[in-house]
Amino acid sequence: MNAPTKGKRILAVDDEPRILDFLRLTLEREGFLVLEAADGEEALRRVRDDLPDLVLLDVNLPDVDGFEVLRQVREISSVPVVMVTVRGEEPDKIRGLELGADDYVTKPFSPGELVARIRAVLRRAEAGTTVANGVLKVDDYLTIDFEEREVIVNGRRIPLRPTEYRLLYHLVQNAGRTLPYEVILRRVWGPEYRDEIHYVHLYITYLRQKIEPDPQNPRYILTKRGVGYSFRALPRPAGQPA
To answer: Which helix or strand (DSSP H or E) is residue 37 part of?
Structure first.
């Protein structure tokens, strides 16, 4: 088993149960955790709620084609996406890549080919700026455990509710940058909540009460009045260029 794959969450999206069974068995054997969705609507919900590390997305889905699902995924997440299809035509591949797919595999494919592609895409993603994996020690007061979906505050473990976790996840993924209210709403709650700014304010309050030494004078979750919120900039790992 390749150690870096252990525990990585792969969302497999396909409307054929036998294909989902094949993907689950193949990927679990390599140490991945496999989530499943049988249509586009469920896939979008699971991307938003379960925050997978990678999505395997079939083009031919019963409710909406995979290209439209990909377009909507890119509105709410930067999760790596590998398109899976029986089509082999160059225009389809180009369309998927232009919409933000990270790679493209054509059925039939071997288990070895699929796993190699997934590992390669995950390596590229992890070489970027993503920080929300494993355990992140922000400082001596705050540690974020992304595997357990909880925070360690001054040595005490505090569980997060699902919405609190999704909110903190997206803030930390963009540490040092202000996320506008509408972006937070789209990524955490979904596009239908784009006008519900009070949700953002309320859950920011909840998070600050859990992680801040003084919620009235926040150290970690910062406000840009009238624009949105940010998580404070994180120190760069040793050896990483500025």
So the answer is: strand 33-37
- Residue 134's contacts (CB-CB under 8 Å, 6 or more residues apart) are 146, 147
Angle, in degrees to the nearest 10, between helices 181-188 and 162-173? 130
Determine which of 15-19, 55-59, 124-128, 149-153 has the lowest per-residue pLDDT on average. 124-128
pLDDT in tens, 188-209: 888 778 788 999 999 999 999 9
**235: part of which helix (H) or strand (E)?**
none
| Integer Cα distance of 231 and 139 in angstroms | 13
Question: Residue 9's closest CA among 36, 28, 45, 34?
Answer: 34
In angstroms, rounded to a whole number, what is the distance separating the alpha carbons of residues 59 and 50? Answer: 21
Give CA torsion, residues 84, 90, 91, 95, to 10 deg. Answer: 50
In this prediction, residues 140-160 reach a mean pLDDT of: 92
Summarised one tens digit per residue, pLDDT across range 113-143 is 999 989 988 887 765 544 556 789 999 999 9
